[in-house]
Each structure stands twice: as structure tokens, then as C-alpha cells.
Write a structure and sequence with these properties.
Elements (H helix, E strand, L loop, with lengths): L1 H12 L3 H28 L10 E5 L9 E4 L4 E6 L2 E6 L10 E2 L3 E3 L6 E3 L4 E3 L8 E6 L5 E9 L8
Antiparallel strand pairs: 1-10, 2-3, 3-4, 4-9, 5-6, 6-7, 7-8, 9-10
């Protein structure tokens, strides 16, 4: 009689192929259900990337002495101060949108070789239009505020 009980204990302690396949299928289905649930939850969460604000302050007019040409890389604009006043000129090439470099003579696009004078007028290269100028105003606290969403005609200076 001891032999049959031994066999039943062996059968209970061994894992059959059917049991392994059933457990593997169960874990696979549970894992897929969890991933599907998480992906559905993430689908409803908005994927928003906020860019730079279109209005920003750059400092007081006194912080820009005459002859200043200060490129602001993050905002893609160059602040210029001359005897005529202050201006903000775009640092984005009108050809394909490359970030252009501010030089002593004007602007130069490193991507395709467009050249612009100090006012952003095209001197050479594939750029079809001059660089846009942006609106400048004095904020109530006396700082210069640039609005890159409002282009102004070339040669429009803020009198400071």
C-alpha cells in the first residue's frame, strides 16, 4: 500500500506540461492586460510641450549701451541698440528656419550660406525674405519687452 501513496505524492509534486503552459498563458494575458490598461491611461493624459513664451523681458534700456548687438539664443532674437533706438531682429533664417549667427557685419546662416546685413536685409544666398523685426515696448517697470508674435516693419525702432 505504500507504493500507491508514493505515486500520488510524486504526481502532485511534479509539474506537468499542461500546468506550465496554463501558467505561462495566464501570466502573459495578465501582463498584456496591465500594459493595455496603462497605455489607455497614458493616452488620455495630454502630451503638451510648451515652447518659449512669445513675450519676454530683456532688461532696462540702460543695460544696452549704444552699438550693442546681443543675440539671445533661447528666444532666437538679437537685440540691437543704435542712435535710432532699440530693435529686435529674428535669428531664424527665412530660407529653412536655421538658427543664424550674429556677426559684426550682420547675420550669417551656417546651413546654406545666406547672408544678411545689420538690418536683416538679404545680401546673398537662398533666403527669400529679409529677417523679421519684432515689436518692442517698455513695460510698466521700465524693462524692454519683446513680442515675437507681432512683427513690425523693418526699421521700426523703440525710442528710449
Amino acid at each position: 500500500m505504500t507504493v500507491p501513496t508514493q505515486r500520488t505524492q510524486d504526481r502532485e509534486s511534479t509539474v506537468t506540461r499542461r500546468r506550465v503552459l496554463a501558467l505561462t498563458s495566464l501570466f502573459g494575458l495578465m501582463g498584456a492586460s496591465v500594459l493595455a490598461g496603462l497605455s489607455n491611461l497614458l493616452f488620455f493624459k495630454p502630451r503638451v510641450t510648451y515652447g518659449e513664451p512669445s513675450r519676454f523681458r530683456v532688461g532696462t534700456p540702460e543695460s544696452f549701451p549704444l552699438g550693442t548687438r546681443l543675440p539671445l539664443a533661447r528666444q532666437r532674437v538679437t537685440v540691437v541698440r543704435t542712435e535710432s533706438g532699440m530693435a529686435a531682429i529674428s535669428n531664424t533664417c527665412t530660407h529653412l528656419g536655421c538658427v543664424i549667427a550674429t556677426t559684426e557685419a550682420g547675420f550669417a546662416c551656417p546651413c546654406h550660406g545666406s547672408r544678411f546685413d545689420a538690418d536683416g536685409v538679404v545680401l546673398g544666398g537662398p533666403a527669400p525674405r529679409p529677417l523679421p523685426w519684432f515689436k518692442l515696448e517698455l513695460s510698466p517697470n521700465g524693462e524692454v519687452e519683446i513680442d515675437t508674435s507681432t512683427p513690425v516693419p523693418t526699421g521700426t525702432y523703440l525710442q528710449v
